[in-house]
């Protein structure tokens, strides 16, 4: 899967990304609160290097953190900035590849890479490059937070799909009511990579309009991602589970080596 293909996937999803949540604002608050509990009250400089349309970045800004958001998708990053502005929150945004972050070294206290973004990188070389960049822009002893799907479980079963989810669009006048989303997963022969087809059904003129988008992921096991984080210059690497943190995905939590 090329960088262009991943960018296109999220550029096309940016306008309707909030529709995959039953209540996007509630999700922002919930995820921001969970990450804040791990970061603490110091409210330093936070980089969300896969900010999308701002779900975690805006949630953290709501808790008073000084957040910069970057994303491979220019449309997603731009929307994150607009959504933060609508809520009277400060959020600096830019389009950037997490393997080449446009910041000087030691600028941030916290680096966040959430919502299964890192597994879009399909080789150890690229994952290590992204983690090394996160380490570079962190101050010594800076905090790293990375969330992925629960791949240790998924690698045992290799599911072919996700259940359909029906969402009420909320109070946005342009949403048109409910939406339905589901995914089909096509596993590669190596048993670790999979192509994902994302289906989004939206009401339009009394009919359902279907949008389909495709991308590829690498089902990174926790042991492998732990090793790659250590190789990139992180220590005290731990995995924190949703029942412990209140965040919706498992979280790798680590510190930048001094």
TrEMBL record:
InterPro entries for the chain: Methyltransf_25 (IPR041698), SAM-dependent_MTases_sf (IPR029063)
Limits of the Methyltransferase domain: 46-142
CDD domains: AdoMet_MTases (cd02440)
GO annotation, biological process: methylation
A Pfam family the protein falls into: Methyltransf_25
UniProt-annotated stretches for the region Disordered: 155-177
Keywords: Methyltransferase, Transferase
Keyword Cell membrane: no
Keyword Kinase (UniProt): no
GO molecular function, one term: methyltransferase activity
Protein name: Class I SAM-dependent methyltransferase
Organism: Streptomyces californicus
């Amino acid at each position: 899967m090329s960088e262009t293909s991943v960018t296109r996937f999220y550029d096309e999803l940016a306008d309707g990304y909030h529709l995959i949540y039953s209540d996007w604002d509630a999700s922002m608050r919930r995820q921001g609160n969970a990450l804040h509990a791990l970061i603490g009250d110091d409210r330093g400089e936070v980089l969300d290097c896969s900010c999308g349309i701002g779900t975690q970045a805006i949630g953290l800004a709501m808790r008073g953190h000084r957040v910069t958001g970057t994303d491979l998708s220019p449309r997603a990053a731009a929307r994150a900035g607009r959504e933060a502005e609508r809520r009277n929150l400060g959020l600096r945004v830019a389009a950037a590849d997490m393997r080449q972050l446009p910041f000087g070294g030691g600028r941030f206290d916290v680096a966040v890479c959430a919502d299964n973004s890192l597994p879009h990188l399909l080789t150890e070389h690229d994952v290590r490059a992204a983690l090394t960049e996160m380490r570079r822009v962190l101050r010594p002893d800076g905090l790293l937070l990375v969330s992925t799907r629960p791949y240790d479980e998924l690698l045992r079963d290799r599911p072919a799909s996700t259940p359909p989810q029906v969402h009420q669009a909320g109070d946005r006048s342009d949403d048109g009511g409910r939406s339905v989303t589901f995914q089909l997963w096509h596993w590669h022969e190596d048993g670790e990579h999979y192509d994902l087809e994302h289906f989004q059904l939206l009401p339009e003129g009394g009919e359902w309009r279907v949008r389909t988008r495709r991308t590829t992921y690498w089902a990174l096991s926790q042991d492998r991602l732990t090793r790659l984080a250590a190789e990139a210059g992180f220590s005290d690497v731990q995995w924190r589970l949703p029942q412990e943190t209140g965040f919706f995905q498992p979280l790798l939590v680590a510190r930048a080596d001094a």
